Amino acid sequence: MFGYSMAEIGNIMVMQGFAGLSMFSVLLLMALGLAIIFGQMGVINMAHGEFMTIGAYTTVMLSKLAVAYGFVNYYFIFAIIVAFVLAFAIGYLVEFTLIRHLYKRPLDTLLATWGLSLVMQQIFRSSFGAKEVSAELPEWLLGSFQPTPDIDIPINGVFVMGLAAVVTFGVFLFMFRSQWGLRVRATVQNRVMAGAVGINTKKVDRVTFALGCGIAGVAGAAFTTIASTGPTTGTLYIVDSFMVVVFGGAASLFGTIASAFGIAQAQSILQFFMTSSMGKVATLLTIVGILMMRPEGLFASKVRK
Amino acid sequence: MFEIQDLNVSYGQSQVIHGLSFKAERNETLAIMGRNGMGKTTLFKSLMGILPSKAAKATVDGVDLNGNESHERVAKGLAYVPQGRMIFPTMTVQENIMTGMEKSKTREIPEDIYALFPVLFEMRNRKGGNLSGGQQQQLAIARALVTNPKVLLLDEPTEGIQPSIIKDIAKVLNEIRKMREITIIVSEQVLSFTMEIADRIIVIDKGKFIHENKREEVDAAKIKSYLSV
Fold first, then answer.
1. How do A144-145 and A153-154 pair as beta strands?
2. Which end is more exposed in chain A, N or C (fewer Cβ atoms within 10 Å of the end residue's Cβ)?
3. For residue A304, which residues of chain B lie inside 8 Å, CB to CB?
4. Rounded to an integer, what distance in angstroms lies between the CA atom of residue A252 and that of residue A175?
5. What H or E segment, with its residue span, contains residue B3?
6. Tens digits of per-residue pLDDT, B55-107?
7. Domains along chain B with CATH numbers
């Protein structure tokens, strides 16, 4: 098949599968934030990718500081937290100044956030330059290990996966075990009624939006370990992330995980055997087909409406 | 206890509620009756701050409600069971009840709630959306009760519910009043139901109160004539 022996195909599957897993992790982190903002609040945030870029640039800047002051081995964990806090704070501000005035006008939100995305990209370009920059990675993130002589598993990929797992678990706890999650889910299902049982829905909106942005910031920090950062980095991921959320079923976290996995794996493995764009086309066609049969996504919950 | 003076509500240019005033005492059940489209739901929504309204005075226990948002009104002692129940369909029964516990110190659902609605305890891990209409109605009442209200507003609690369950709901409302001594205001079209629970009956027509009477003195035929189309 394709001129490879069976053993080679096996190795390729494992390595491409693993590359797919790293992509899955970044995609999942992006999509989690979006699933919270789009799936839960119905806001189409075109600037979501830029919040990821904020996280990425934060990490890059901190890495420069770390190199200058010689704490390269420790800064990364710290960078993840700063990326989250910064993206959270900016998200909070954006919700307060822009988004909250547009909840009843979904199309206007789309335009406004798209504009915001352009503005933010230009800010990145003006302040950090158009050239792509990379973070100085700590040593423990570099290199790879080889379970067999023909298979290379990069350590940064493993790290990103671990991070995605931790964040996903955190989001799950937040949404389904905490008082805040209860407020968020109630507000999502029926905003008016949530207010009428005593929930401050405006505050919930602000925190939810900021949280989604914060997670995008973490995605950005994770992203720096597998690629370099430029002003338009976020934009490249936004379409895929939306696809993940829609395909998984907007209101379902499990759906988001499953669909991020499916899409990342399909693209990664198909791209090896076909050209990159053909791989995308094949994935997209499959998604369109499945969405025609299940318009609410893979995992819509079944209840009486 | 609960006092409203000169309440006006409009949808754009068309005024729906015309200068309503009423007072309800502690431990009193007040029924507001009227046909469809006479402004019952609009009245309740404006009382909850869901619709914008103007009132000369709106107070619970002397505390002013004017200009407050829904959640602030809940904090001041209003609770609302809307028409159509409006429970949160994809959340479990337990979670539905807990949404009402914003101001509560514990995260435990009080025992008296499950004592009042044993069926909710049985169903506590089911999704709210999978309950029957009557069970959802009980859930909506439970969710309102855990806010520890001073005034409980129920908008057509019998709508779309079978007669035997309607009797149960009447029984529960009477029990709630006995237990908590709160003010209950209920909008209704079913006279037999209101006769079981209300101390006072007011008839609303085209956004104005046109008739008011104590339950003992009610002329059933007269009220029925107001309610018939």
1. antiparallel
2. C
3. 89, 129-130
4. 11
5. strand B2-11
6. 889 999 989 999 899 999 999 999 999 998 899 998 999 999 999 998 887 88
7. 2-227 (3.40.50.300)
Nearest C-alpha in A relative to B94: A182
The token duo for A171 is: 């989001």
Indicate the domain borders of chain A: 17-125+153-293
- Residues in chain B with CB shorter than 8 Å from the CB of A189 are 88-91
How is residue A115 written in tokens?
């504009």
Pairwise CB contact (< 8 Å): B82 & A182: no
Q: Which residues between 139 and 198 in chain A have a beta carbon less than 8 angstroms from any beta carbon of chain B?
A: 179, 182-183, 185-186, 189-190, 192-198
Question: Residue A113: is its pLDDT beyond 90?
Answer: yes
- Which of A183, A190, A193 is the best residue to mutate to test the B interface, defined by the most B CB atoms within 10 Å of its own CB? A193
| Distance, CA of A204 to CA of A206 (rounded, Å) | 5
pLDDT above 90 (res A82):
yes
Look at residue B162 and tell me whether its pLDDT is greater than 60.
yes
Q: Which amino acid, one-letter code, is at A93?
A: L
Residue A300 has pLDDT above 70, yes or no: no
Query: Most A CBs within 10 Å: which of B50, B60, B71, B137, as the mutation test of the A interface?
Result: B71
Instruction: Say which DSSP state B85 is in.
Output: -
Determine whether the interchain pair B95/A185 forms a contact, defined as Cβ–Cβ distance below 8 Å.
yes
Nearest CB partner across the interface for A192, out of B50, B107, B143: B50
CA distance B143 to B122: 16
**What are A120's two structure tokens?**
């933010």
Identity of residue B115? A
Q: Is residue A20 within a helix (H) or strand (E), and if so which, with residue range? A: helix A6-34
| Cβ contacts of B190 within 8 Å, gap of 6 or more | B158, B166
pLDDT digits (tens, 9 = 90+) for A212-249: 999 999 999 998 988 889 998 888 888 888 888 888 87
Instruction: Provide the token pair at B182.
Output: 């709160």
Residue A264 Cα distances to A34, A49, B102, angstroms? 16, 17, 40
Contact B117, B176 (CB under 8 A): no
Would you place residue A124 in the very low, low, confident or very high pLDDT band (cuts 50, 70, 90)? very high
Predicted TM-score (pTM) above 0.90:
no
Which of B44, B86, B97, B99 is most worth mutating to test chain A (most A CB atoms within 10 A of its CB)?
Answer: B99
Nearest Cβ partner for B88 among A186, A201, A304: A186
In this prediction, residue A305 carries a pLDDT of 47
Confidence of residue A264 (pLDDT cuts 50, 70, 90): confident
What is the 3-state composition of chain B as percent helix, strand, coil, each rounded to the nearest 5?
35, 30, 35
Strand pairing category for B183-188 and B151-155:
parallel
Average pLDDT value for chain A: 86
Give the pLDDT confidence of A155-201 residue by residue, as tens digits: 888 888 899 999 999 988 998 889 899 999 898 888 899 999 999 99
Average pLDDT of A106-117?
A: 91
Minimal Cβ distance to A303: which of B89, B99, B107? B89
